[in-house]
């Protein structure tokens, strides 16, 4: 039975148990999947099909977001601070991810100072190389570094290869089509490559600073203390997919916050919010 049917069964059971108005549901994938395209199979690449994934959020307290698609850069590291924010706990300051609540509150408006890029990385060739990639609205840029598996880090002074792909006309072509022509050596895009390379290094420095013991302790402390009382949910529209055949699911009625993560290989890069 297809995954979308299972999602409908979960939503229907939440309705049956009377939990639909105080339960947040997140549908996400950890990666996409190559099916022979670009000469690749499986997931371990820095190309679009492996890194652009489904992310859907059903949040009853945000009726403005119902059935909306938000076309901005988001990352899976944004899911945790979003759920902490929804539960009205204090979002730890050391996190790299950003709460998606501003997008849920105003799905048709990009918030000021919203992130302009998403980052991914993958080890390749028996962990000899680390590929670090940045995706903006218009470009994907990737640098490959020698990787020291003993030290567990890449040598950022030993760039082995670079890739630059133009996504400005994606809406007019098939998915991932523009990552078939590497423009990294094209002189007319030299400034673009330099700017994106600097963006990669800035993010790497932020990531390194975010995993210090002090930062980890701050995350643990902040998450343990609620910021305010739990949400008082207002009635909203009935969830889709509710129908017969869902009563056999075992959903814990005592769980106020239920996060359902279904691992799909859908090659979608957008937030869809439904209620």
Describe the protein.
The protein is of the alpha+beta class. 23% of the residues lie in helices and 21% in strands. The protein has six helices and ten strands. Strands 1-4-10-5 form a four-stranded mixed beta sheet, with no helix packed on it. Strands 6-7-8-9 form a four-stranded antiparallel beta sheet. A hairpin with a 5-residue loop joins strand 2 and strand 3. The longest helix is centred in the last third of the chain and has 21 residues. The protein is globular. The relative contact order is 0.25.
Topology diagram in text:
Elements: H1 3-16, E1 25-28, E2 34-35, E3 41-42, H2 48-51, E4 54-58, E5 68-70, H3 79-86, H4 101-105, E6 118-124, E7 129-135, E8 139-148, E9 153-166, H5 190-210, H6 213-223, E10 270-273
Parallel strand pairs: 4-10
Antiparallel strand pairs: 1-4, 2-3, 5-10, 6-7, 7-8, 8-9
